[in-house]
Amino acid sequence: MLSIGNEQLSIGVNTLGAELASIRSAVSGTEYLWQGNPDIWSGQAPILFPIVGALKDGQFADNGKIYSLPRHGLARKSTFSVIDQSKNSLGLELLSTAESMQLFPWQFSLQVHYSLHDSLLNIEYRVKNTGDTPMRFTIGSHPAFNLTQSLEHYTVRFSATEEPVRFRLTEEGLLETTGTAYTLESYGTAATQGIRLSKHVFDDDALVFKNINSKHISLYCHDQALIKVHNGGAPHLGLWAKPGAPYVCIEPWFGYSDSTDASGQWQQKPEMLILNSNCQFEHQWAIEIMSVSG
After folding, report:
1. Backbone angles phi and psi of 274, in degrees to 5
2. Which CATH number does the domain housing residue 191 bear?
3. Separation CA 178–CA 167 (nearest Å)
4. How confident is residue 141, by pLDDT bands cut at 50, 70 and 90?
5. Which is nearest to 224 in space by CA: 122, 148, 283, 170?
């Protein structure tokens, strides 16, 4: 595991998936990131590329050929190379290969850059189309945060007024075609909106909200802010955990699962980013620890 740190935080990153493995206070020793448990969920903070969620029948068609791509894409199961490292920054890169092109037939470079600034962990994705034809893709983040007290003590709060519509997931991980209004709680004099966690809030899988207004989503314990996830303008949000498990995932996404009526045609898949040859997409988001002393 690779490590960087400053006077407030240290982080660990695995080369497999360029996945965060630790966010620890250098002051108190508190570990904020879920440490994974194969009996519950072994993941910690997978990077979702070149899809978010699932494809209908686990495959897509493009240019007359059928390709199979696993849920959340190929990056999370691929080994990245280290391209730069300093005391408080780290860069990793994944390049397309003949093997990856059997799953996703475009040439690409995916770079992930981590940097620490006081109690803020900045994460930057750089996706480059290194091939000759336009590339359609999407990307998302899936960090899981530790919950050390009873679940009911925690809330996930939005930074802006929301009227969220939840799109439910089927057993195959596909989105239903129509959503239903989701009722939020209100907290404090500022009428901040949010969701109280419980053993049952994720009984029907993830909460998926499209096109949210909030630029950051915060995890609170009682009325104390613990963690703030700055989504960097990613328009969609997933919230998830295995029911009753002691963590919660706060997931900024640029795309989402296929719907149950998806055609399976790659060129018709909605909410995709498009890169022409030799062009680059960049996205920055951040995890802010609100109190490194506790």
Report:
1. -125, 125
2. 2.70.98.10
3. 7
4. very high
5. 148
